[in-house]
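In line with agreed milestones, the collection of sequences with tokenised folds has grown. One record among many is set out beneath this paragraph:
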Amino acid sequence: MPSVLTRSGADPGIGQTLHEVAVVGSFSGRDGRERAEVQLDELEELARTLTTRVVERSSIPVREPHPATFFRAGAVEALGARLVELGGPAVLVNDQLSPRQQRNLEEAWGVPVLDRTEVILAIFARRAVTAEGKIQVEMAQLEHLLPRLAGGWTHLERQRGGVGLRGGPGETQIEVDRRLIRNRIARLRQRLQVLERQRRTRRQARSDVPLAACALVGYTNAGKSTLLNRLTNSEVLADDLLFATLDPTSRLLGLASGRRVILTDTVGFIQALPTELVSAFNATLEEVRSAHLLALVVDVSHPDCQAQLSTVLATLAEMGCDQPALLVVNKIDRLQRDRLEELTARLEAIAGCRGLQISATQGTGLKELRGAVDALAARVVPETPANRLAGHAADSGSDETGGERVPGYATDRDRAAS
């Protein structure tokens, strides 16, 4: 397959064109293989979120990444032959590839090659709903693309750019593309500044409502959206997909004491989140930082649940979040009781707090969870006449999803249209 026909995996729009893919991961040592298989399971889920069909799965031993192709020559040749047999599906690599490694693999295999960063970027591009989310994702895509432009224009080798005769092959076209991308990034930043001012105005309106705010945080696909729907009688999108929800959604939660709490569903975290994707989390990160308390939602049925909780806690620590937290052990209906108790004890040791066992889909344990949220909210935001007034004022209407509106919070429809 000629490489000139290959579309680069770094192309921001590549995710819309993928239909069949092969997922490839690396491991080192005997103990690394089992861990690599769990990570490949996650990559398959990411591929499913992209609505692609996985036709091949491969774990390749890598003692040390090859500087040119990441994998050794024998592995590259063997996988290339297999891709020909399968009809040339795109390749998703569960590792971080350098621009050089990515270009060399695409040339060797004649198919688009996407590393882990580009797979997540493609999902973000599909899932972003709000104007701000779409802009931030596009910026992340363009910033990721910039260092991958070099070497892509060897067909223009007779052109020379710059001053004198030192310009390399295709230098003029690369410079033009880089300038266009940087100009686009600058315009996007200006638009984000406008949206940031609007967000500050909304934040001021929220601060006028003296209610406790609780953020649902956790690994992607831990069941946060399903839990929000169950607790607040809402209809937020909740699907068995990674990153099914990208934009934060807030609803009012009424508790037995009569107290009202703002409950916010946030985007899920994921291991080894690339730095260029962090900006796409800005809206969610602000909601988490400003929350009075956190609910750490963990999918206890996942084979890697302990590592997932560690990832969430590490991310929260990097964000400077040290609010009081509840450990919510979700999806207990999928485990036997003895296994559940063992894993809950391990998760409690990692989180440093007692775990509340629930099943968001079955409704198990939600009464106890409401009680725990009520007690913690009373401790961090004591009840005052202003709280009670705010809670009664919020009773005036319901939004289109069935959940009660929060003053100062735009609904999903409003945010998408902004």
